[in-house]
Amino acid sequence: MNSRDGTLYLAGGFAGGLLVGLIVWSQQTRRYRRDLFSGHKLRRLAALGYLRGQHTPDNVLLLRDYVNWETHAKLRRRGLRILRRMEESLA
Asked: Could you tell me if 83 and 70 are in contact, meaning their C-beta atoms sit under 8 angstroms apart?
């Protein structure tokens, strides 16, 4: 095996790992999209990540409820940023 073959294997492994990581994250965000009011911070973070791309009037109402409910400051701020962007895009 020469160095060119090794480089190709390395690049292929990196691309494959990146692809698997993206698939796993996508599955987690779909799984957790209903967990916006979960007791687990990571699930709420994943739900916010999913909702970030779902600009609908219903999600604006849901995020308003979430922001008022959330006790963790960083998650509340993230929810507010997403809510503001969503309201601007729907205006």
From this structure: no
User: Residue 89 and residue 59: Cα distance in Å, rounded?
Assistant: 12
| Three-class SS state of 45 | helix
Question: Is the pLDDT score of 27 beyond 90?
Answer: no
What residue spans define the domains of the chain? 3-90
Rounded CA-CA distance 13/11 in Å is 5
- pLDDT on residue 28: 67
Return the number of other C-beta atoms located less than 10 Å from residue 33's C-beta. Answer: 16
For residues 71 and 8, give the distance between their C-alpha atoms in angstroms, rounded to a whole number: 48
Residue carrying the six token digits 């994250």: 25
